[in-house]
């Protein structure tokens, strides 16, 4: 009798020691799992060769690879933002919304999918979502193949012999304005693709992590979560390196370009990387669909181990859905942890979204090079931070308060790091021009006034021979002739330059030391930031009962999508646009920004990020206060059960 009482009490008890309202059950009332529920296969076909997949190791690998691909998609999308702005002549606030559109899809379906999918075949939902993501990747190719190829217009006569001198003829470029100038249709197509990606990615986060937690011991969860997170941490490197490779190829690979990839006007093959990403997602999604509803060893363990909770199936309805949401909103740990995550993501998302643009602006490097550095720097530190934190949690089993306190420490360290970034950058005071009364940068000076350089003159930076001043174009430098010497193009007879001579591209800036300092601090921040993610997630899923686990993840994801991931990139896009000095023009419409005020951009981005992360640390302080009674590990649950039964 007492064995039955003990067994049924544990089976109906959540991680906080509360007895389930479903009452007591005896082993006689439990039904064995259907054989199909623990076999790998689909559609009634369960070949023996596939049964090797029915293990937590196989799931961790496939789930980790899917996560890596999802992070690679994010990173690749971010690495191509600047190029997309130039290709389709759109401002940063719109590309920011394009990035955040991913979370419109998540916001629409995430929480409902988490609730109604929590008692269904979780792995198959993850697979279905991955296949949707794969198809959405191919939809990203539509703007490239639908719209006419990009033709770079230099605004001057470029048919110059590479011997002798020729006069420059400044003529406004002929623009096709039959469609009204700048078309936003490509941006709308890319935004729609992002929304579909968000819908497809939602099951991965809400149901994928719940499936893992359902099928492993609680003590093993921190380490396994860290391993899957380590897979995901490789994703940004894959995405940024793929972006660096694609952006090094001309946007139309079958054509040649008269400018190099180092030229700020270069437009790389932004669309190319979506092909391998889409193929990989379709392949991994197909493999994920073969996983069983429950892993065999987990079923056996739950049948034999009376110290694991097995909740009976509960009927899902909208009435119960409302009760569940009310129960979640009354959970202080869940709410404070979610709000802290919202502010933390808001503080970090500016760098996540616009890091390549930031590095281009601050350190005068190309889009391909910035993508390479963004993808490669900090990978080892990030992976080491995630894995080491997961291993330490599994081995040492720190208390919930220690985990919460560590998150506070990490966030305060981030605040210090971002404040320091505000003062690390390259000098940006070498651009020729003056401040206008409306706060814009006026490129017209007495020395170039007779040239009537219209706003339609395309961006073609040149540098004075003494390397002291950068000009927007040869027209704005007042150059009348061009000459080739040793295969190098020289602009001569330039009215705005004392020596009268200039070379192509920006003036070189000695900024190597500042760049190295930036990279070192960034690596340190990545290590510590990643070390807090495992503990944060464990607190999140242990703060609720077993039946609410999936929907609690969906609930947090809904808050993050609505308040952080969606508006965050748009907010930072507006901040970047507000620091623009020179806007591109086409058919009388404003397009993308060509030149930014580097110092103001540093202040806006870094101080905003530091302030938001500091607010996150305050809410983590509330988590620290309320989290002391949460039971994180199997032993604590057993002890609580014994106390209740006694």
Please provide a brief summary of the model.
The protein is an alpha+beta fold and 646 residues long. It contains 22 helices and ten strands.
What does this structure look like?
This protein is α+β, with helices and mostly antiparallel strands. It folds into three domains: 2-31, no CATH class; 55-172 and 184-290 and 321-428 and 510-645, MFS general substrate transporter like domains (Growth Hormone, Chain: A); 434-504, no CATH class. The chain contains 22 helices and ten strands. The protein has helices at 2-11, 56-79, 81-88, 92-100, 102-116, 122-139, 142-146, 185-214, 221-247, 274-288, 296-304, 318-329, 332-363, 367-376, 379-396, 400-421, 512-531, 533-542, 549-565, 567-577, 598-626, 634-645; strands at residues 165-167, 434-435, 441-442, 462-464, 470-471, 479-485, 488-494, 501-504, 580-586, 589-596. The strands form three sheets. It has a six-stranded antiparallel β-sheet with strand order 1-6-7-8-4-5, with no helix packed on it. A hairpin with a 5-residue loop joins strand 2 and strand 3 (441-442). It is elongated, with a radius of gyration of 28 Å.
């Amino acid at each position: 009798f007492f064995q039955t009482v003990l067994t049924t009490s544990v089976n109906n008890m959540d991680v906080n020691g509360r007895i389930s309202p479903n009452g007591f059950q005896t082993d006689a009332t439990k039904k064995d799992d259907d054989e199909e529920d623990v076999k790998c296969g689909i559609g009634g076909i369960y070949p023996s060769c596939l049964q090797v997949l029915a293990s937590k190791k196989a799931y961790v690998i496939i789930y980790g690879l899917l996560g890596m691909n999802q992070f690679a998609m994010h990173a690749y999308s971010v690495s191509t933002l600047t190029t997309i702005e130039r290709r389709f002549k759109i401002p940063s606030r719109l590309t920011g919304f394009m990035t955040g559109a991913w979370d419109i899809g998540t916001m629409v379906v995430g929480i409902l999918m988490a609730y109604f999918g929590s008692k269904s075949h979780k792995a198959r939902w993850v697979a279905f979502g991955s296949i949707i993501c794969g198809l959405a990747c191919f939809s990203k190719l539509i703007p490239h193949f639908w719209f006419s190829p990009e033709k770079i217009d230099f605004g001057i006569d470029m048919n110059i012999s590479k011997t002798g001198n020729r006069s420059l003829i400044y003529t406004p470029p002929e623009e096709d304005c039959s469609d009204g100038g700048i078309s936003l249709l490509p941006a709308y197509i890319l935004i729609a693709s992002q929304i579909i990606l968000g819908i497809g990615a939602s099951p991965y986060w809400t149901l994928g992590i719940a499936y893992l937690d359902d099928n492993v011991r609680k003590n093993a969860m921190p380490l396994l979560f860290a391993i899957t997170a380590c897979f995901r941490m490789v994703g940004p490197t894959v995405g940024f390196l793929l972006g660096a490779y694609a952006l090094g190829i001309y946007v139309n690979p079958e054509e040649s370009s008269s400018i190099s990839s180092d030229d700020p006007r270069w437009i790389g093959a932004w669309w190319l990387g979506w092909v391998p990403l889409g193929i990989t997602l379709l392949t991994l999604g197909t493999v994920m669909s073969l996983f069983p509803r429950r892993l065999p060893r987990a079923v056996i363990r739950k049948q034999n181990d009376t110290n694991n909770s097995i909740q009976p199936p509960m009927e899902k309805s909208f009435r119960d859905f409302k009760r569940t949401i009310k129960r979640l909103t009354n959970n202080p740990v869940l709410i404070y942890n979610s709000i802290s995550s919202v502010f933390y993501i808001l503080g970090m998302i500016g760098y996540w979204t616009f890091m390549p643009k930031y590095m281009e602006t601050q350190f005068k490097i190309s889009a391909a090079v910035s993508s390479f550095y963004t993808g490669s720097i900090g990978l080892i530190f990030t992976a080491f931070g995630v894995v080491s934190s997961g291993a330490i949690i599994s081995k040492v089993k720190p208390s919930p308060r220690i985990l919460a306190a560590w998150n506070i420490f990490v966030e305060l360290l981030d605040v210090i790091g971002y404040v320091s970034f505000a003062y690390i950058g390259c000098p940006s005071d070498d651009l020729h021009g003056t401040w206008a009364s409306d706060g814009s940068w006026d490129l017209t000076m007495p020395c170039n006034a007779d040239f009537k350089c219209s706003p339609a003159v395309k961006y073609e930076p040149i540098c004075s021979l003494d390397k002291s001043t950068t000009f927007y174009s040869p027209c704005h430098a007042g150059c009348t002739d061009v000459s080739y010497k040793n295969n190098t193009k020289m602009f001569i007879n330039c009215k705005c330059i004392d020596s009268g001579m200039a070379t192509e591209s920006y003036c070189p800036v000695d900024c190597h030391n500042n760049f190295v300092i930036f990279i070192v601090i960034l690596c340190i921040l990545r290590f510590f930031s990643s070390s807090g993610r495992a503990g944060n997630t464990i607190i999140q899923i242990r703060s609720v009962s077993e039946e609410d686990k999936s929907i609690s993840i969906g609930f947090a994801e809904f808050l993050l999508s609505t308040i952080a991931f969606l508006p965050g990139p748009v907010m930072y896009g507006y901040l970047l646009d507000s620091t623009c000095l020179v806007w591109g023009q086409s058919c009388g419409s404003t397009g993308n920004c060509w030149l930014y005020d580097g110092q103001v951009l540093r202040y806006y981005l870094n101080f905003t990020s530091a302030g938001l992360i500091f607010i996150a640390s305050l809410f983590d302080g509330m988590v620290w206060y309320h989290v002391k009674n949460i039971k994180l590990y199997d032993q604590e649950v057993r002890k609580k059960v014994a106390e209740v039964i006694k």
